[in-house]
Design goal:
Blueprint (H helix, E strand, L loop, with lengths): L1 H11 L10 E9 L10 E4 L4 E4 L5 E6 L4 E5 L6 E4 L6 E8 L24 E6 H7 L15 E4 L9 E4 L7 E5 L2 E2 L16 H4 E8 L13 E7 L7 E9 L4 E8 L7 E12 L8 E13 L4 E9 L2 E4 L9 H6 L1 H4 L12 E2 L5 E2 L3 E5 L2 E9 L4 E21 L2 H5 L4 E2 L2 E2 L12 H10 L7 E23 L3 E22 L6 E2 L1 H4 L14 H4 L2 E2 L4 E22 L3 E18 L13 E15 L4 E12 L24 E13 L3 E22 L4 E25 L2 E15 L1 E7 L6 E7 L4 E6 L10 E5 L9 E11 L5 E14 L13 E4 L5 E2 L2 E14 L2 E10 L7 E5 L10 E5 L4 E9 L1
Parallel strand pairs: 1-7, 11-14, 43-46
Antiparallel strand pairs: 1-4, 2-3, 2-5, 5-6, 8-13, 9-10, 11-12, 13-14, 15-16, 15-52, 16-17, 17-18, 18-19, 18-20, 19-24, 20-23, 21-22, 23-25, 24-25, 25-28, 26-27, 28-29, 29-32, 30-31, 32-33, 33-34, 34-35, 35-36, 36-37, 37-38, 38-39, 38-40, 39-44, 40-43, 41-42, 44-45, 45-47, 45-48, 48-49, 49-52, ...
């Protein structure tokens, strides 16, 4: 509480005073090319961070200080500024905005931005004002949960551990771009939102494009794209300081300052902040910083330059993704949590023998992105926009090690939904202190359990350049290049032996083969080498990816008809360099090349000023992922999938739109067929983990999406959406079994001579004796994302400067994620799966409100958010169990209960 009070006092010392008089201004914003009203345009007070958005008819009204100005902007259009002279009410009438593929005069790559009623894609745009209202203490993806097709979950519940899913596709199949630059992990496509914690504070707008989208980069996604546009050269003079406080010790302080565009063409924007707290989930403490700097120069009317750097160094304790319990298991832990919510329980939370905080799951990372962008207006009809960028990721996550698989698995608080009771205090905390005694008892073998840092650094360099030219009056052509070079550095370093003098990494070293690493010829001396802190265990390799691509798109724009055709060609090259399982002569794997391409087209036809239709179709061939696709066990082996093939995606979309002064409706239907996917599932078998690597997996994702917004009264806005999906796996595939070292498995079972369970290796990868399994998934529902979602939002503006909002969200037909269970293991057999368990439907309410006022000559605001107002208990994630029902489902995680935050902001 003292921290919160200090936070508010800090801000209030910057301003105090009495409210000043206000001027009422209004107007109507339209598209300059066709006079269409622009709903959702942002009308802001430069440097104040205050404003409003236009209604469905493009109209707005706002109260501002006398002799000030307003800024009108909309994604995909050039912004305009209007001055207010005197203190009388002002009606600006019709304000026309011109389209601009380099939106709002920014020196950024925004050629992937779509324009409503022009670009034939299903899209949703979220303005900075909407972000400011809705973000509260949420992770960035949760702000998008009212977008059709979106499902966001925090799963483990740690800071920044949210996951975003779109049309049933997980994050690795959704392209996320910041100012047009792709930021998904290069090795397996995932997004780690904790690395981008400051984005919400610098985002001018966010556009979600579902399906094919308007992205012109050479390696598009399957499910859609999220393009986040940050503030750059359009930044106005001024800034803000803010302080947010919330439940469970949540605290956040921020500042932002901008020079605006100077007379000499320079603009500078700085942002910095810190976020810290205890976490809603027990034992998920966190501390993060964020920074943003943009230096822009308008060199001349033909040349503009912009330098941007931003990052969010952070650390946070986690609840491991494997720590989900069964439904009954969550009820049983109530004996530990008492009156507080059982679903905040963290099986890995605990302390050491000296009372020091211990955890088996921690993440610390800093992933700054730095870009230099240049825009060149070559002549009246052509321009070139180029971004050179780099990302230098540095950080780690905890990775528990064990003398055997049994001890390694003890680091998890749960196994297949059952709470691990071997290391458990009477109060339910993880008994880290007992590890010291256990290691001491087994001193001859060193540490039976030890902790390592899984270091995952990377160096990523890229160049994205787009040439645009207008051909004649109605045709635009875009073409460009997309180059990326990536090196990921992965190693594990021992950091804590829990009282022991050494650690023997026999579990990993037994998989080092003499023919790959001559050091392994020493046999037991190599396998049982005594290691100390700072030495390497489990893995030590570099992953390399080089991608080159070219893309082109032509658009033909008539009065009512907009048609486009686009294509791209790319080449994906990857290889490994391993220092653990291979010696210098064998360290480098072979290079694998995967050419790919995209072809897509579409059209939008504006039937009248109120009605429009659009259609799109496309086909994508993209390389398999580095991890689990090209390399069978990318963490530990250079063994390449013998027959890796590109994934193929066919997608088609139809849509309809209606808008008038009071109502905006969008309806679309989609069909996406995903073919030749590579997928791996693992099973713990006590002595090791056996993985099934499957190729040729197909799926169909199809459905309908509907969303609307209406402003029947000047003080009332209503929004809503409904999304109905039908997502199923198709056909069957054959998979081959591998052990944790990437070696092909021949058999697994009891050795009658030794009396131990053992794995026998096959003579080669996909040889005649290599164990395989046929998996029939035909018709099985795709899990992990609610196939039916709906929302309804009401926003009231009872008087100037005050708003109140209520949002209802419904999640239904949410199936547990299909998984490979121990009972499914059938070497050289087959298995037909049923659809997984369907989780109960759930509906939650969120509320928000705010008040804007003048204090000491400055604009100020107080806002508040309460999420899950009625403290609804509901399941957000689960893995399907043996019997596909409630009783056998495991890995269950519940959504957050009621949380809230209050924010004070002073603008200057």
């Amino acid at each position: 509480m003292n921290k919160h009070i200090a936070c508010f006092l800090f801000i209030f010392t910057l301003s105090a005073g009495v409210a000043l008089s206000q001027v009422s201004v209004k107007g109507r914003v339209v598209d300059a090319s066709d006079g269409e009203p622009l709903a959702g345009a942002t009308v802001s007070i430069p440097g104040a961070g205050q404003g409003c958005t236009t209604g469905l008819d493009g109209r707005f009204s706002l109260s501002v200080a006398p002799n000030s100005s307003i800024r009108i902007s909309h994604l995909g259009y050039r912004g305009r500024e209007k001055s207010i002279t005197g203190s009388d009410a002002v009606d600006f009438g019709v304000i026309m905005l011109e389209t601009d593929e380099y939106a709002l005069d920014d020196v950024i790559i925004t050629s992937s931005v779509a324009v409503a009623r022009k670009t034939p894609v299903a899209l949703s745009s979220i303005s900075s004002a909407r972000i400011e209202e809705k973000i509260g203490m949420q992770d960035f993806p949760e702000m998008l949960k009212a977008v059709p097709g979106i499902y966001s979950t925090r799963k483990g519940g740690g800071y920044g551990d949210s996951e975003l899913r779109l049309r049933g596709f997980k994050s690795e199949n959704i392209a996320v771009m910041v100012n047009g630059i792709p930021v998904n992990d290069m090795e397996w496509g995932s997004m780690y939102w904790s690395n981008w914690a400051g984005l919400a504070d610098v985002s001018r707008s966010v556009q979600v494009q579902r399906g094919l989208g308007a992205s012109k980069v050479s390696a598009p996604s399957v499910g859609g794209s999220v393009n986040i546009i940050t503030a750059t050269i359009d930044a106005q003079k001024g800034g803000f300081v803010s302080c947010t406080m919330g439940d469970h010790g949540y605290s956040k302080i921020m500042f932002k300052a901008s020079t605006g565009l100077t007379d000499k063409g320079w603009a500078l924007t700085l942002l910095g902040g810190r976020t810290w707290g205890d976490g809603y989930i027990r034992g998920t403490e966190f501390d993060g910083y964020s920074y943003f700097i943009n230096v822009a120069r308008r060199i001349s009317e033909r040349h503009r330059l912009s330098f941007t750097a931003f990052g969010a160094p952070q650390w946070h304790n986690q609840r491991n993704k494997n720590d989900g319990l069964t439904i009954d298991g969550w009820q049983q832990v109530r004996k530990y949590t008492g009156e507080s919510s059982a679903f905040r329980y963290n099986p890995a939370y605990g302390y050491g023998i000296g009372g020091e905080r211990k955890t088996s799951s921690k993440n610390a990372y800093h992933k700054p992105q730095i870009s230099l962008n240049h825009w060149w207006q070559i002549n009246e009809t052509s321009s070139l926009s180029t971004a050179a960028y780099l990302s230098l990721g540095r950080g780690y996550g905890y990775s528990g090690q064990g003398y055997s698989m049994e001890y390694r698995n003890r680091w998890y608080g749960a196994s297949y939904g059952a709470l691990n009771m071997q290391l458990r205090q009477p109060d339910g905390a993880f008994a880290y202190g007992d590890i010291y005694a256990m290691n001491d008892a087994g001193a001859a073998n060193g540490a039976l359990m030890a902790m390592s840092k899984a270091v995952n650094n990377h160096n990523w360099y890229g160049l994205l350049s787009t040439y645009s030219v207008k051909i004649g009056k109605n045709t635009d052509f875009y073409g460009g290049v997309d180059f990326r070079y990536y090196k990921g550095i992965h190693t594990n370093k021992l950091i804590d032996l829990y009282g022991a003098d050494f650690f023997i990494d026999a579990l990993s070293r037994k998989n080092v083969l003499p023919e790959n690493n001559s050091a392994a010829a020493d046999g037991a001396a190599f396998t049982n080498r005594r290691l100390t802190t700072g030495e390497t265990v489990y893995r030590d390799y570099d992953g390399y990816i080089v991608q080159e691509g070219v893309f082109a798109q032509a658009e033909h724009n008539l009065e009512k008809l907009n048609v486009f055709v686009a294509g791209s060609v790319s080449n994906f090259t990857c290889w490994r360099y391993d220092r653990f399982y291979y010696d210098r002569d064998h360290a480098r794997s072979g290079k694998e090349n995967f050419p790919g391409f995209t072809v897509k087209g579409g059209a939008n036809y504006n039937l009248t000023e109120n009605h429009n239709l659009f259609a799109g179709i496309g086909y994508i061939s993209r390389a398999p992922f580095f991890s689990g696709g090209v390399f069978l066990s990318a963490q530990v082996s250079n063994i390449i999938n013998p027959h890796p093939v590109n994934e193929k995606i066919f997608s088609a979309e139809l849509g309809y739109g209606f808008q008038n002064r009071f109502l905006n409706i969008k309806l679309n239907a989609y069909h996406t067929k995903w073919m030749d996917k590579t997928m791996t599932r693992g099973i713990d078998v006590n002595i090791d983990q056996i993985g099934l690597n499957m190729t040729g997996v197909d799926a169909v994702h199809q459905g309908i999406e509907f969303d609307f917004s209406t402003a029947p009264l000047g003080w009332l806005d209503v929004t809503g959406m409904f999304s109905l999906g039908d997502w199923r796996w198709k056909g069957y595939s054959t998979g081959y079994f591998y052990d944790s070292g990437g070696q092909p498995v021949r058999s697994y079972g009891l050795n009658t001579v030794t009396g131990k369970m053992e794995i026998e290796h096959a003579s080669g990868v996909q040889a005649a004796d290599h164990a395989r399994m046929s998996v029939d998934l035909n018709g099985v529902k795709v899990g992990g994302s609610a196939q039916t979602t709906a929302s309804l939002g009401v926003r009231l503006k009872p008087m100037s400067g005050i708003y109140l909002g209520v949002d209802y969200l419904l999640y239904a037909r949410n199936y547990s994620d299909w998984n490979f269970n121990p009972s499914d293991l059938a070497l050289n057999g087959s298995k037909k799966y049923e659809s997984p368990w369907k989780m109960p439907s759930a509906g939650v309410f969120d509320i928000s409100g705010g008040y804007s006022f003048r204090a000491g000559g400055l604009d100020a605001s107080v806002s508040a958010n309460v999420f899950n107002l009625f403290d609804k208990e509901y399941i957000v994630d689960a893995s399907d169990g043996r019997d596909h029902n409630r009783e056998t489902a495991y890995g269950v995680f519940y959504g957050f209960g009621r949380t809230g935050a209050v924010k004070l902001r002073i603008n200057f």
